Amino acid sequence: MSTSDPAGDGLGLRGIHVAVPDGPGTRTLLDAVDLDVAPGEVLVITGSSGSGKSTLLAVAGLLRRPDRGEVLVAGTPTAELSERRRTALRRERIAIVYQSANLLPALTAREQLELVGHISGERRSQARGRAAQLLEELGLAGRADQLPAKMSGGERQRVGIARALMARPTVLLADEPTASLDGALSAEVAGLLAGEARGRGLAAVIVSHDDAPLAHAERHLHLAGGALKAITTVAG
Amino acid sequence: MFLALRDLRRMWRRFALVGLVVGLVAMLSTVLTGLADGLVRDGTSGLRALPVTHLAFAPHSEAVFSRSTIDERSLAKWTRVPGVEASPIGVSFVNAASTDGGPSIDLALLGVSPGGFLADRSDARPPAAGLPGLVLASELRDEGVKVGERYRIAGSDLTLPVLGFTFAGSYGHVPIAFTSLATWRSISYGNDARGRFSAIALRVPADVDVAAVDRAAGTETKTKTEAYDGSPGFSAETATMTLIRAFLLVISALIVGAFFTVLTVQRTRQIGLLKALGASSGYVLRDGIGQIAIVVLAATVIGAAAGAAVIGLLDGGPVPVELSIGGVLTSAALLVLTGIAGSLVAFRRITKVEPAIALGVEA
Ligand SMILES: Nc1ncnc2c1ncn2[C@@H]1O[C@H](COP(=O)(O)OP(=O)(O)OP(=O)(O)O)[C@@H](O)[C@H]1O
Ligand SMILES: [Mg+2]
Hints:
Oligomer: heterodimer
CATH class of the domain at 11-102 and 168-233 in chain A: Alpha Beta
Bound molecules: adenosine-5'-triphosphate, magnesium ion
Helix content of chain B: 40-55%
Helix content of chain A: 25-40%
């Protein structure tokens, strides 16, 4: 555990509180949540539908400000940062893998990755080279010029993972990355995601409904009633 | 515009309709520009053809010949200015009825001085030389008017023979007829002309202080182009065309704005994703508005070219048209600018999108 270590180069959440409007009142989705994920560590969070897992990722990924609390990305506190600085930090440090990949329909596999380079102002030739290499590493070299509509679900999700790695992030977040895949494919993609994260020393949080990612995780937390509870701790 | 260009290439169908509409508006706008310029040219071709640089009118006549009366004293002041050539000119509209039962014709009657520089074309000289008669705009020859025919000028006792034709054009869309100043005076003033005429035709060198001579001569001098404003119908025609073209610009801006707003709403999740990837609002705006700008530009260029082709086909026909590159370019540039301005209505919509919706979460 690394609760005393102030997130180091990984991800840290401190006293995160999020409440959302619910009918006439409000519902507390996250209630003083504390969490540390060290570089190279893969954490899986489970929870029932509507328990706030995606909201937790949105907060950790600087996509949404919590009502209270602090998010530390690679040791940098973010609560006081301007929206511009948070956007820059997101660009430089954070990558997200989405449920059903969330690829852009107009871009080929190669271009999904090159877009990440373009957004961060990377030289065109350099982005092109890195994209080709990542696609190669993830076994997608043959699909580089394919549009998402022509890919299988597994291919799409692997492109989604490659796009996340293209950002050279410190923190990797995944929201039900295997939910739209079946059985063997699900296990394969989960293994790929966890393996790449660990191999690159990323602080990884995988939110999941199914059990596929559990086999590849150091830690497993369960979100319920606004709080995270440890389920098991696999020695890493 | 990494995404915008690829999106355009692969999803072009979604832009086909708005492109078509903007293209048609550009075409219509270009055709109207050609018609407006044609009307202006047709209404002022007579003035344009006069070998003058300026026209001196009576004060407050706003370049309208029928409001202006000038006499010899003013003319003398202008004649005395070194380098200036000045010649009296009388302008009025008359109806001339053929004495052998043919159709009557409307004429813009120009009375010019014998030996003056206005009558320097050899085919226009006879009437100026004092022989009572008419030299008509050559368009009338095409309508069957012949040399030797006699015309009675309505409202006067005069019957005048057609002496010849010249390239004279028209004024206020009425064909021009030259006659001598003396004949013009007897038509306009009867026996009481007292040396009056409508305006002074001038050839003024660039270094002459026109305003100073105006003060001394009691005249109000307009350049030839300024004098177009006074030609009958000119301001109404110009204003109408300007109004129609302004409407077209507004329509185009509204169409582009509505289309881009719908497109932006459809793309909300994609915009959220771009922001989640770390793109700034500026990046997303450049991408989206740049894309619309390309569509509007391409559609306008094609539409304007088609409009220019239509004008080319109409040229030489019964409808007066004029294809001026400057006019076409100006109206096309205005269309592109207003189209892009229209797309700015989605500005707030784009900046407001929260990156959290990429995760399906509301912020
Ligand atoms: N801004 C908001 N306003 C109102 N309700 C919200 C808001 N954000 C989230 N919610 C609600 O909070 C709950 C948790 O949402 P969230 O997407 O985080 O859950 P989840 O655990 O990811 O669920 P799932 O497993 O279905 O993806 C949902 O019921 C959602 O409707
Ligand atoms: Mg969710």
